[in-house]
Design a protein that fits this description.
mainly alpha; Arc Repressor Mutant, subunit A; Tetracycline Repressor, domain 2; elongated; DNA-binding; transcription; TetR family transcriptional regulator
């Protein structure tokens, strides 16, 4: 007697490898996203090396390993790609710090401390990134597209800071209205920007490794928190090179 092969259960059939195989369209979308990102990164690299005037379409395409025709396909024009490279840079700066905050555990102080410190540590603390930022910031007043990107990225950064500040103020019994949190986020952003800018220039006046501690101590003062409320989380930060 020949035994018939056991029939595969219905739920197993639904979860077979064939059912979850990505379609050709999904592969295409992934490839498009990768090429677009490669062009943005290549744009930043070329601007960092040769300045905005030296970042030609041909040079950027060669750096990205794609044809120059893909610039028009993904961005419509060279000018729009450069604007999107600025947006990409600003998104990187905020997202890397926000990712550090999410790794801070359940404590609101730890999350805020990691966010503040990440902005004045590598990879955000970088001569290349400050140089790129300076190249783009000069266009903010005169070109509407850059002004919109600057405003949107600044607003996003303030929103992240405001969300991180609020639970810390509540925990320590400090005024925590939306207006109070927003004002403190603006002040703390100014502190972060100044330390990031000067620290990235590496002028030799102080060791950049001191910046996280300086930033956290100053943030405690701005928020009127007890001593070491943020500084005690300095030991939780990843080591710096």
């Amino acid at each position: 007697m020949v035994n018939k092969p056991a029939q595969r259960p219905q739920n197993e059939q639904l979860h077979s490898p064939k059912a979850v195989t990505p379609t050709r369209k999904s592969f295409q979308r992934l490839a498009d996203a990768d090429r677009r990102r490669a062009l943005l990164e290549a744009t930043l690299d070329c601007i960092g090396e040769a300045g905005a005037s030296g970042a030609s379409a041909r040079r950027i395409a060669e750096r990205a390993g794609v044809t120059a025709g893909l610039i028009r396909h993904h961005f419509g024009s060279m000018d729009e790609m450069v604007r999107q490279a600025y947006a990409h840079l600003m998104t990187q700066l905020t997202s890397e710090a926000a990712e550090a905050a999410r790794a801070g555990g359940d404590s609101p102080e730890a999350a805020l401390a990691r966010f503040v410190a990440a902005n004045v540590m590598q990879p955000n603390l970088s001569p290349r990134k400050v140089s790129l930022w300076a190249t783009f910031i000069g266009r903010v007043d005169g070109e509407a597209g850059y002004s919109v990107i600057h405003r949107d990225s600044y607003r996003e950064f303030l929103e992240v800071l405001t969300r991180l500040i609020h639970p810390v103020l509540v925990k320590h019994g400090r005024p925590s209205s939306p207006e109070a949190c927003r004002s403190l986020a603006i002040a703390l952003n100014g502190l972060i920007d100044g330390l990031w800018l000067e620290g990235s220039l590496d002028h030799g006046l102080y060791d950049p490794h001191r910046l996280p501690g300086i930033a956290l101590s100053a943030a405690e003062g701005l928020l009127r928190l007890p001593d070491t409320a943020l500084l005690r989380h300095l030991t939780d930060l990843p080591p710096q090179d």
